[in-house]
Design a protein that fits this description.
The complex is a heterodimer.
Chain A lengths: L1 H8 L1 H18 L7 H26 L5 H29 L10 H23 L5 H29 L4 H28 L8 H25 L9 H28 L1
Helix pairs in contact in A: 1-9, 2-3, 2-9, 3-4, 3-9, 4-5, 5-7, 6-7, 7-8, 8-9
Chain B lengths: L1 E6 L4 H11 L3 E6 L8 H7 L5 E5 L9 E3 L5 H15 L3 E5 L3 H6 L2 H18 L2 E7 L5 H10 L2 E5 L1
Classes of the chains: A mainly alpha, B alpha/beta.
Chain lengths: ~260, ~160
């Protein structure tokens, strides 16, 4: 019975892994069956849709007596929904309108909204934890601002020196900026949780952190690829993109298993 | 409800077990004076008929319902309390056997802030909190903050 319950908690993740593996085989072995645009975007939309379903399930399962965590999960749900809608719009434009999705278009607007919701979620997750002193908090924020500033400066100054700085590049840089903010916010929790030896109750938080890190890697790679106009749907970096959703789904499933444990014991 | 029990140092351990036994709900015990393994049998006896989870801040005990948190990591401890309560569910009691180990490893001002944080959050969590303190062992300001927040103060002679 316990195994069945555990399997139920991880059912979304299992489905997502199967889709991910099929996508990986399709991309890595360059299997050119079907319409590349439909299939490439289809995989992404299916997995981001599963991420939305997982977020809904988790949001419903968090008890109301934990308002901050409920709030954090509400914004995570908003974020996942906006990411999904952005992906869906990308698919719609490429498949039905048969146009190259413009940078700064509807998908980018939806994804920017998704990032803002993710940042609010990360702030809410942070406020669950006790902050020993404002000094430490402000030091971390200051350090974060300096790191973000240096990375953004290097990134933008490189574009300017190459004479490639334009609207499209600025949009890509905004994503990297959002990613860095998320990493700074989440790393505060990481530092305190990593020192706790038996951390099964914290696994979902850790996995969520890995997911955010993966997204940052993807955004960086995508920015570089789009600068050279070498990105296409079905490119191997799509796997990194989908891996981000996979981590969100795994984090949700782990949390679900943790919350359900009390009913099985 | 927040209850503060002030007792002689030699009585705190038995008071902790007594309150653990009396609690009509699931219990989250925060161990700050005696490690889990040294009172495991007594704890298991007191936990009959209810679900208990312990956070040990004294030593690295192993077990299914035990988690070790470094006493100087108050952020980790606050998250551990939050998450443990979620896993317990239902009506929950948070019982601190003392604040000894936390007061040794942390600045009294920070510990006072931490206790305020936990006591305030316990209202959201709809948990009852019982803090057992041995008389004279803690910073006066810390004790007075807990006293002010507590709904009930018991002095056991």
């Amino acid at each position: 019975m316990k195994k069945v319950n555990k399997l139920c908690c991880y059912s979304f993740f299992i489905i997502a892994v199967v889709v991910f593996l099929v996508q990986a085989i399709w991309i890595l072995f360059d299997l050119n069956f079907g319409n590349k645009t439909i299939i490439g975007n289809g995989f992404i939309c299916i997995i981001s849709g599963i991420a939305v379903l997982t977020s809904i399930t988790i949001y419903r399962k968090i008890p109301i007596s934990f308002p901050l965590e409920k709030r954090a999960n509400r914004f995570l749900l908003f974020s996942m929904s906006l990411f999904f809608l952005g992906d869906l719009n990308w698919l719609f434009q490429e498949v039905f309108e048969k146009v190259a999705v413009p940078i700064g278009g509807l998908s980018d607007i939806l994804w920017f909204g998704a990032y803002i919701c993710a940042i609010i979620a990360a702030i809410s997750f942070s406020s669950i934890a006790f902050a020993p002193s404002r000094k430490r908090f402000y030091t971390m924020i200051a350090l974060g601002v300096v790191i973000i500033g240096i990375i953004m400066y290097l990134n933008i100054s490189q574009d300017i020196s190459l004479g490639t700085f334009n609207f499209d590049h600025a949009i890509q840089d905004v994503y990297i900026f959002y990613d860095l903010i998320l990493i700074v916010l989440i790393s505060r929790l990481f530092i305190d949780l990593i020192s706790i030896e038996k951390a099964d109750m914290f696994y979902s938080w850790m996995i969520l952190g890995v997911g955010i890190f993966t997204r940052a890697v993807y955004d960086y790679l995508f920015a570089n690829l789009s600068e050279t106009a070498s990105y296409y749907t079905g490119h191997p970096i799509d796997l990194v993109y989908v891996f981000f959703y996979l981590m969100i789904i795994l984090a949700g499933s782990t949390k679900l298993a943790f919350l359900r444990r009390r009913n099985n014991d | 409800m927040i209850k503060l029990i002030l007792a002689k140092p030699e009585k705190t351990s038995s008071l902790f077990l007594e309150n653990l036994k009396k609690s009509k709900g699931n219990v989250l015990g925060v161990l700050c004076s005696k490690p889990y393994f040294s009172i495991e049998t007594e704890l298991n006896k007191s936990c009959k008929g209810k679900e208990c989870f312990f956070i040990d801040t004294v030593s690295e005990s192993k077990g299914e319902n035990i988690l070790f948190v470094d006493p100087s990591n108050l952020t980790g401890l606050s998250i551990a309390i939050n998450q443990s309560l979620q896993s317990l569910g239902g009506k929950t009691f948070i019982i601190f056997d003392s604040l000894t180990n936390l007061s040794i490893r942390n600045d009294p001002e920070i510990l006072a802030k931490f206790m305020m944080f936990i006591l305030t959050k316990s209202k959201d969590w709809k948990s009852e909190v019982i803090v057992i303190l041995s008389e004279g062992s803690l910073n006066e300001r810390l004790v007075s903050i807990i006293k002010q927040t507590a709904d009930k103060v018991e002095i056991k002679r």
